[in-house]
Amino acid sequence: MKAFGCAMLSLVALAGCAAPPMGPMVQVMPGPGKPFGEFQADDANCRGFANMQVAGQAEAVNQQAVGGAVLSTALGAGLGAAIGGGQGAAIGAASGAGIGAAYGAGGTSGAQMGIQMRYDGAYSQCMYSRGNQVPGYAPPPGSYEPAGYPVSASVVRAVQLELNRLLYMKGGADGIMGARTVTAIREFQRAHGLPVDGAATPYLLDQLRETPSGY
């Protein structure tokens, strides 16, 4: 039976095992105006997040496949012994191992696809929340203003005051859209899953006002 057990494990190995995804199979592009270095950092962080979401799933599928092959081998050996004694047990065990391996191959193949889909979903959500462009996903119409939306100095000043309150900025509110203000807006948008465009808009001001201090 030891020889049959080895043969069964070899068949399971040949049938193919599920493996953790090597990376995303969805093409994500940088958000408008996002530096490529920042996009690369988003990609690395989101790959790590996606890996955590599917951690251990491939190993669990493989263990289940081996368990099914072991059960098939045992059932085949039992049936063969009942029919033809020792020789029948050997033939039954080999047949059972083959059936178990074939069943495991189909199961691991389907599971591999499911693991990849879960990985891609988690990766896409993460990249989208950081303001990157994900195929098939777009912000709801009217949910935010584009970067070129004309705003008054009073709106910019109000945005700066809110950014100071939330500790994304330090300094006076001068109503001027300088680099310091744009950077602070982008940091807030990224932290709260908003499209990252760095624009001071009435929509952004509403989001800032609805955010409690310390969040």
Topology at a glance:
Layout: H1 2-15, H2 36-53, H3 57-129, H4 153-165, H5 179-191, H6 202-210
Helix pairs in contact: 1-3, 2-3, 4-6
Principal-axis shape equals elongated
Per DSSP, the total helix count is 6
Radius of gyration: 28 Å
- How much of the polypeptide forms β-strand, as a percent range? under 5%
Biggest sheet statistics: none
Chain oligomer state: single chain
What would you note in describing this structure?
It is a single chain. The chain is mainly α. The protein contains six helices and no strands. The chain has helices at 2-15, 36-53, 57-129, 153-165, 179-191, 202-210. Helix 4 (153-165) packs parallel to helix 6. The longest helix is centred in the middle third of the chain and has 73 residues, at 57-129.
Structural key phrases:
single chain, 215 residues, Muramoyl-pentapeptide Carboxypeptidase, domain 1, 6 helices, elongated
